[in-house]
Design a protein that fits this description.
mainly alpha; DNA polymerase, domain 1; 2 strands; 4% strand; elongated
């Protein structure tokens, strides 16, 4: 019984540690499956819409652009902001 509790506790802490310290998902390179897993409130259909939007319009410049996709509103963006990142975004030319 004690061994079972120890094993279950180890599994719990391993899963908790992974989800707590997981790398943010890159919305410019992740596939639909990874997006659906990483973004709370986004299922497979909306994740596919994110990839389709990205393919049609190019890389996202910020996570706020996700609100242009049907089914994603400000609450979804705000609740996931720390779990998402944007790579390859154009930066303003300061010259």
């Amino acid at each position: 019984m004690k061994l079972t509790r120890t094993i279950l506790a180890s599994i719990f802490f391993a899963v908790f540690s992974f989800t707590t310290y997981a790398e943010p998902v890159d919305i410019n390179s992740a596939d639909a499956e990874a997006l659906a897993e990483a973004i709370k409130g986004v299922g497979p259909k909306t994740a596919a819409a994110i990839v389709g939007y990205r393919d049609q319009h190019g890389p996202f410049q910020s996570v706020d652009e996700l609100q242009d996709i049907k089914g994603i509103g400000p609450k979804v963006v705000e609740s996931n902001r720390e779990n998402m990142k944007v790579s390859g975004a154009k930066t303003a030319d300061t010259n």
